[in-house]
What we know:
Blueprint: H1 16-27, H2 37-40, H3 44-59, H4 65-78, H5 82-94, H6 99-106, H7 117-132, H8 137-171
Helix pairs in contact: 1-3, 3-8, 4-5, 4-7, 4-8, 7-8
Amino acid sequence: MTMGRISFPAPETMSPAQKAVFDEIVSGPRGALVGPLRAALHNPVLADRWQQFGRVLRFETTLPGHLNELAILITARRWNSLLEWAIHERDGLAAGLGQGVIDDLREGRVPGFEDDLAAGEIYDYVCQLLTRGKPEQAVYDPIRARWGEVGVVELTAVVGYYSMVAMTLNAHEIPVPEGVRADLPVTPGRLCDLPERG
């Protein structure tokens, strides 16, 4: 694996506090340490809080898995985050997100959600949050109506958290692991446009 802009603590050189957080991460649902937590481990308190927050937003929201992964992939696409995209493309497929939807997101097109009204609502909400900073009331209301206050709060937190993940991965150039495909067209120096549905 190539190096990023900063060093990443290796298990054999970690302090006891770093090693405790590392062990918790790799023994949990992630199963490995390949993303931004590699950088966050420089501050084990930050890394521990980060991994706890991330575990909730990745594995424990009330949103169905494929919709949570849709929100994460839209966020990864906006920030052109190669590693985030690679991990969540795989996870999205495993959660039941269609390959056509993923391909459309990759290419910067509005996905065809067919009869999946909930996915279209998620797409609208996440796109407006990421491009405008605030979704319109007409986009906010369907999310709240379908998922309740808990769901709309969780969805907003997912977008915020995975924006932080993308920024960390991009700023420190945390590499994509060997053998992992990160097939994402990127224009250097630009965020990806997220076209809104008509």
